[in-house]
Amino acid sequence: MSGQSSAPVARDGITPLQQMVASCSGAILTSLFVTPLDVVKIRLQAQKNPFPKGKCFVYCNGLMDHICVCENGNSKAWYKARGHFNGTLDAFVKIVHREGIKSLWSGLPPTLVMAVPATVIYFTCYDQLCAALRVRMGKRAQEAPLLAGAIARVGSVTVISPLELIRTKLQSQKQSYRELTDCIRSAVEAEGWLSLWRGWGPTLLRDVPFSAMYWYNYERGKSWLCERQNTREPTLAITFISGAVSGSVASIATLPFDVVKTRRQVELGELQAMNLSSRASSSTLSVMSRIVAQNGVGGLFAGFLPRLIKVAPACAIMISTYEFGKAFFRKHNQERTLGPLQTSNT
After folding, report:
1. Confidence of residue 346 (pLDDT cuts 50, 70, 90)
2. Checking DSSP bridges between strand 56-60 and strand 65-69, what pairing results, if any?
3. In contact, 126 and 147? CB cutoff 8 Å
4. Helix, strand or coil, per DSSP, at residue 69
5. R_g of the chain computed on alpha carbons
6. Confidence of residue 2 (pLDDT cuts 50, 70, 90)
């Protein structure tokens, strides 16, 4: 029993390592379900407007957005594959028939190298922070998810931003790691250390409000559904519905920031691909002003339905898998604790 009590068990009965395993499982499952939707969307975009050299597009694996740079002369790249599609369903069928089912996950493995650790950091930090804040906030404990979600997202975005910039440079310029090190060193000397966090601000403007709203609504929705169902422990259906609804609400509320962030992310990626200083990129406010001038206020809400179709299932799958994993480990820990007690009583 002494060995059991020395394990760093969290307040909800599971260890931080078990939280990491649960979030890792959720991240992989989410990416496997959501990536095919984005692959088909990108293929349809490439069919309508072929991507030239240096052109960037956003690739989403359901966990985070990644900038992909089109390579020069690479006609075999997955996003340039031949074939004419008459809509989303037709694209799904033809890609599977002509290229095999694995093609629906084209480009996924390199993005998981960052997306999975980022998700693990984010979910584990959220749970640890939320448990600590609930104790300290007393009567205002219901607001703990809002604060914990925002802080956890700031942490994960701050860790991942420089790595995403390095990944984009590697992909666009085909540099060796030594050349990349020299390139980063010269950029830091010219523009300072903060140049490694270009695009950090617009990402926070979207992700921090999204996370705060998502976790607050998710926890409230989950509690409400548990009361309605007269159950103490949330079922898979309760976590799935709560995740989908809270994800939908947060995605609609933060849509203008998503439009601005995507536009600015693409601009930064294309500047890096052309080896130009990222100082030439527009500020968040100027990008927003330009979108309104070109397309009116409605331009800030462009892509409403595609974002909702992508975010709602991603949130639902991720959180329900994560909660299922935590429930599994909680039960496992209880059985391990009770096992020796039951044998000693008999």
Report:
1. low
2. antiparallel
3. no
4. strand
5. 22
6. very low
318/243 Cα distance (integer angstroms): 8
For 323-342, the pLDDT digits (tens) are 999 999 999 998 888 766 55
Can you tell me the distance from the alpha carbon of 214 to that of 133, in angstroms, rounded to the nearest whole number? 17
How far is residue 177's CA from residue 183's CA, in Å, rounded to a whole number? 10
Distance of alpha carbon 265 from alpha carbon 251, whole angstroms = 18
- Selection from 186, 319, 208, 312 nearest residue 252 by Cα: 312
Among residues 125, 132, 175, 187, the alpha carbon closest in space to that of 154 is found at: 125
Cα end-to-end distance, the chain, whole Å:
17
- For residues 212 and 204, give the distance between their C-alpha atoms in angstroms, rounded to a whole number: 11
CB contact at 8 A, 151 and 129: yes
Segment 63-110, tens digit of pLDDT: 888 888 776 555 567 877 667 888 888 989 999 998 899 989 988 888
Contacts of residue 91, defined as CB under 8 A and 6 or more positions apart, other chains included, come to 40, 43, 44, 85
What totals of helices (H) and strands (E) does the chain contain, helices first? 11, 2
Question: How confident is the model at residue 4, as a pLDDT?
Answer: 42
CB 126 within 8 A of CB 148: yes
Q: Which residue has the higher pLDDT, 223 or 284?
A: 223
Distance CA 131, CA 23 (A): 17
Tokens for 199, please give them.
């695009």
